[in-house]
Amino acid sequence: MPPLDLDPRFTFESYVVGTGNRLTCAAARRVAESPGTSYNPLFIYSASGLGKTHLLMALGHHAARIHEGLRVVYDTLDHFMGDLTAAIQAGRREAFRAGLDEAGLLLLDDVQFLAGHLGSQEELIQTWDALLARGRQVVLTSDRPPTEIDGLDERLLSRFSGGLIVDIAAPEYETRVAIVRRKAGERGQRLSDGVAEAIARISFGNVRELQGALTRLIAVQELEDRSVAVEEVSGIVAGAVPAGAGAQPGEFDQFLEEIAGAVGEIATATAAEQAIADAIMRWEAEGYRTRRLEGALARDSSAEVVEGLVRQYEADVERLREIAGEIAALDAHAQELARLDIFRSPDRVQDAEELLGEVRERSRPLPAPPMELTFEALPLSAESMGVRSARAVAERPALRYNPLFLHGPEGSGKTAILGTLAAELQRAQPEMQVAFTNGSAFAADLIQALERNHVDGWRERWRGAGALVMDDVDALMDTERAQEELFHLFDALQRGGAQLAFASRLAARALAGMEDRLRTRLESGLVVELDAPPPPPAPEGAAHAGGNGRAPARAAAAPPARTAVPKFDLDEWFLDREKLPREWPNVGEWLIEELD
User: Fold this and answer.
1) Which DSSP state fits 581?
2) Could you give the CA distance from residue 128 to residue 132 in angstroms, rounded to a whole number?
3) Distance between CA atoms of 286 and 280, rounded to whole angstroms?
4) Which tops the pLDDT comparison, 131 or 63?
5) Is 112 within 8 Å of 149 (Cβ atoms)?
6) Burial class of residue 402 (count of CB atoms within 10 Å of its CB; 0-12, 13-18, 19+)
7) Is there a domain that residue 372 lies in?
8) Per-residue pLDDT reduced to its tens digit, 403-452
9) Edge-to-edge strand ranges of the sheet holding 404-407
10) pTM score of the predicted model
11) Which domain holds residue 496?
12) 320 exposed, middle or buried (CB, 10 Å; 0-12, 13-18, 19+)?
């Protein structure tokens, strides 16, 4: 039996990258782009249903698309060993090995089934050595690391360990949301607001179970011709069962070319060859790779086939030019324009589309501040600590109180102060990008980038900010990926001299669901607590004590007590690593003196 076909659905474009699979996906792309030169062998392992087979086939598709003449062989270990056994029984062992020698890339799935099969392991060792001796690339997947495969020959274990061993972890919440949205979009289904998030919050053992739950929900929408509401999600997916072992790669119809009469065939072949040769000469002269056309010439294709092939080739060249033009319009100095390996290869239009997507992502404008806000129009006392500290930041951004962290209850004015600060920064430096957002919007923006597989462009976009002003940062509590991205963004912006300002309902130390490394950064600058809003005045004519309608005599107001200067330890004042103030002694008097 021949090796199995690669499933056309499983590509890098349809693979959602998150924290748990980022390294493994990067290694797979590297191997696909340079097979046999790095990470050989590449050994990928994970629990069932987390995307090993998808990534393995995506690697094969990508390598075949960009490498001329590369033969990719994909097989499951069980199928592979069955073919080998049949060849041995038929006395065709050497022919079987010779066929494998032609493979430039061997993809073997589910190698955990080597356990206990000593004969199969011996044969695999010999096959392996023959492939590696010829510089062939080998990629394997398993549901466990090599050291946990029972009865594995030490020679095989040594060969596995000689390359790169990487695992795929379960996706975090944000990646699960992106997966749900991507899969729903692939099926032409629109989910109501909050439904993807509700599915992603349910604890599934793996991605396959997550997709099974989504399938059940989509079935309800299709069969009942309605949209499922958020409150229905838990009830609908409660009965979803894990997906099965997975669909086998699709079976494709095999088309046979009919041969015409001898005279007609010769005439047609001659015309086709001339058309192909003309196209090759033209496009090579313009610097484009013509592997696709050369392959048609070798196959002795008919005139009709050649005409369609040349037409599609020219359409792909035109699309490459359009993409390059769109990128240049977005960013005339985009480094992607230097990728001649892509923009000169019509076989890599999809890769060019990915580059365009990244440039579009990083070129999107950051959320802008409300420019109508001014400090003079703030409905707060100009003498309040929050307003004074924001004014000081606006006057000397990134040089004083960086970061600024405001916290206080609802109605304390923190959102108005932050919005005004962002607007003042933008007015002072119109050329600077000032990002004004909140925790929920930041996380939602990240999920959209994950869904489109454009996280690199998303990061570059946010790191281009000259100031980051984020309200309701406490909305990021108990998130995973969003906190990680904000942590790295915080450091990158601060190193680049950008101003940072945040607001929260809770004090930084009370953000229980926030990572310590991020929480300590939030409180590493100036921390200002805002007072709760005053209670509304009593209604006029309200009854007073005694019931006689007369106001009771007021007690003489005691003069306000002077706040004692708190004692502080120098080690408590400075962070261990950053050496930045954590607690400002007698901050009220110090700030007033500085600003006056």
Assistant:
1) B
2) 6
3) 10
4) 63
5) yes
6) buried
7) no
8) 999 999 998 899 999 999 999 999 999 999 999 999 999 999 999 999 88
9) 434-438, 467-471, 499-504, 404-407, 526-529
10) 0.64
11) 385-532+566-595
12) buried
